[in-house]
Amino acid sequence: MSVAQRAFYSDANVNKDEDLFSAAEKIPAVKPEEKIAKSAGRPRSEASRQAILDATWKMLLHTSVKDISIEGIAKKANVGKTTIYRWWPNKVSVVLDAVNGQMMFPPAIISGHSAKEMMIAQLERFGKTLKGRTGRIITEVFAESQGSQDLLEIYYKNFMLQHEEILANIIEQGKESGEFAMNADTALVVDMIYGSVFYRLMSNPESIQPVFFDSLAVLGLKVLSVYKAAA
């Protein structure tokens, strides 16, 4: 006997000797409005996804990244853990998406100005992303990712990559325009600048102030000038 047949025969209102199709006729038809309700799963899924991000952000405001768990996020968002894993592979991914969704800063200036001006503007812009609690969250996520290549890759892809690409693009424009030396090592300069930022974040986060980014921009421009002088 098939699973469907056993399901029909287990109903108290269905006689075991009754024809299967006759029994099926007794099943009430689904009303049109019920069909609509059942097909509305996607909006509910999107609502659940947003609830997860909102819950994560609220937790981040008063809880360290280390003390947040998938279980805690699921409980606060009133969803199951499987719902979270449907979109994110781990806690770090959820946290970074929640942070990115809350960041409000002007778009990068990547044209229409000198490379020097754009470089200074980009570092000011990056500095704004690291102010206050947001900066602490980014630092905590970075610390949480240590020791796991997978988490570091997620951190790099979801947060740092966009900033590195912008700065690298500006430096390349400066090389093409003659502002910077053609032999300047773009990747090395980018690493020098952002590496300095994260060293400060880990060792002395209170020093991450606008004046620090101004000094960093000056240093970066001097390095590019040294390349030009040595060319």
Compact description:
Among the domains are: 46-91, Orthogonal Bundle (Arc Repressor Mutant, subunit A), CATH 1.10.10.60; 115-224, Tetracycline Repressor, domain 2, CATH 1.10.357.10.
What would your notes on this structure say?
With about 230 residues, this protein is an all-alpha fold. Among the domains are: about 45-90, Arc Repressor Mutant, subunit A, CATH 1.10.10.60; about 115-225, Tetracycline Repressor, domain 2 (Orthogonal Bundle), CATH 1.10.357.10. Helices cover about 70% and strands about 0% of the residues. It contains twelve helices and no strands. The protein has helices at about 5-10, 20-25, 30-40, 40-60, 70-75, 80-85, 90-100, 115-130, 130-145, 150-175, 185-205, 210-230. It is elongated, with a radius of gyration of 28 Å. The termini are far apart. The model is unreliable at about 1-40 (pLDDT under 50).
List the SSEs and their pairings.
Elements: H1 3-9, H2 20-25, H3 32-38, H4 41-60, H5 70-77, H6 81-85, H7 91-102, H8 115-129, H9 132-145, H10 149-177, H11 186-203, H12 210-230
Features:
single chain, 231 residues, mainly alpha, Arc Repressor Mutant, subunit A, Tetracycline Repressor, domain 2, elongated
